[in-house]
């Protein structure tokens, strides 16, 4: 499966639990509507969200589908030469009390000049 390179970079930093690297991908005025928490409207809130989230035991993220690279969506997702939209599904996995937990979630990222300006993630209702 072809994955948007910026999304692949985000997943890489996420799976390394590198708070500095992942949060450096967000514009200083980015908005994050995260899967597991309330809306983050400031840089500090985004950093705090990832700092706390990435403490989960063996947390990782795997992209299940990146619709932005399908032929029907590829041109629509490149809004301008500097703005890219990436939509799809990812799966979070982590352990709680020695039990594996998995959570499918839908995502939308809007990248402008290679920085995330909007990131929405919500639990997949399946």
Q: How would you characterize this protein structure?
A:
The protein has a single domain, classed as Nuclear Transport Factor 2, Chain: A, CATH 3.10.450.50. A hairpin with a 2-residue loop joins strand 5 (99-112) and strand 6 (115-123). The mean pLDDT is 90. It is α+β, with helices and mostly antiparallel strands. The two termini are 21 Å apart. Strands 1, 2, 3, 4, 5 and 6 form a six-stranded mixed beta sheet that branches. The radius of gyration is 14 Å and the shape is globular. It has helices at 5-15, 19-23, 43-53, 71-77, and strands at 26-33, 57-66, 78-80, 83-96, 99-112, 115-123.
Indicate the low-confidence ranges by residue numbers.
none
User: What is the residue-mean pLDDT, rounded to a whole number?
Assistant: 90
What is the number of domains?
Answer: 1
Shape label = globular
How many extended strands? 6
The percent range for helix content is: 25-40%
CATH topology: Nuclear Transport Factor 2, Chain: A
The tally of helices reads: 4
Strand content: over 45%
Q: What is the string of helix and strand elements?
A: HHEHEHEEEE
CATH architecture: Roll
What is the CATH level 1 assignment?
Answer: Alpha Beta
Largest sheet: 6 strands, mixed
Rg over CA atoms, rounded to whole Å, is 14 Å
Strand pairing plus helix content: what structural class? alpha+beta
Distance between the termini: 21 Å
């Amino acid at each position: 499966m072809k994955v948007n390179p910026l999304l692949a970079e985000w997943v890489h930093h996420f799976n390394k639990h590198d708070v500095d690297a992942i949060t450096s991908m967000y514009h200083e005025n980015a908005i994050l509507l995260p899967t597991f928490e309330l809306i983050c409207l400031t840089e500090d809130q985004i950093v705090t969200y990832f700092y706390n989230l990435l403490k989960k035991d063996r947390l990782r993220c795997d992209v299940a589908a990146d619709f932005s690279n399908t032929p029907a969506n590829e041109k629509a997702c490149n809004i301008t030469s500097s703005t890219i939209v990436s939509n799809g599904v990812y799966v979070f996995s982590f352990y709680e009390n020695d039990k594996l937990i998995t959570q499918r979630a839908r995502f939308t990222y809007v990248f402008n000049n290679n920085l995330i300006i909007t990131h929405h993630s919500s639990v997949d209702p399946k």
